Amino acid sequence: MFENQGDCNGEKPAPKDGRGSLVRNYFHGRKIHPDSAIEKLLEPYFKKSEVIKKTIVGTAARAIDHQRFKESELGNLVSDAIRLEAKTDFALVNSGGLRAPLESGPLTYEAVFRSLPFDNAIATLKLTGRELKLLLRITESGSRGFAPVSGLTLKLLDTSVDASSTDLNGNGKIEPWEINRLLETKSQDGSPIKDDQTYTLGTVDFLLVGGDDFSWFMSQIPKDRVQLNTGGILRETVVKYLAQISPVNTSEKPLIDPAHLRLNFQKSKKIKKEIGHRRKRR
After folding, report:
1. Of 2, 42, 128, 156, which one has the fewest beta carbons inside 10 Å?
2. pTM here?
3. Residue 65 domain-assigned?
């Protein structure tokens, strides 16, 4: 744990005097020490994993950043890998499942593992356009950041502007994921998403079993339209994708294309008023 912080959470704001050095934690009042017998037992596995960790799996022309509350270079890379592997119309990944940016230069398996430490499996979902928009409304509410997408362009209300909300699950209170920041949904080629048309979506099983505010939405979807394991582990999918497209994030093919943003944030007060009018009509 961090000495000054009292835990190992590197994402929360650091104390004024910094996090401090990494120190051993306590369990039932006793400081934790490694067990020499267990260390000896695990030694051959550590040696084997060390070779795998240093394996070069791709190259990044420039650093690949990840921020939860804006379009993410890493998120675009991962969601594109999912869509290609799952062979779906669209794809998305939860922003919180991406844990660290990638540095420029050779990309090791260890670096990818640090970015994608969870053994989430690729999963697919069949949705009508109407259901897809509802799902995107939840993932792009800003409650857990904004979910990276592939094959879609979204117009979203910036978090600096108040947004309307609806008690979707009918529990009598508005939760952060019930805030509606989704203004417009189109496919990557600019065509609108049709409410009655069926689309396929690639994502991760963590979401489809109810993680990150998906529980209520998934309760509305028939189980025969959900396939939980269609492409193996996400991390391995990204490793395979990197081998195919490296070098990534070049100046010619940036992971975020300013001319074709996937997440377009609107701060206009006019939009805010329009949302207010919609709320009144309800």
Report:
1. 42
2. 0.85
3. yes
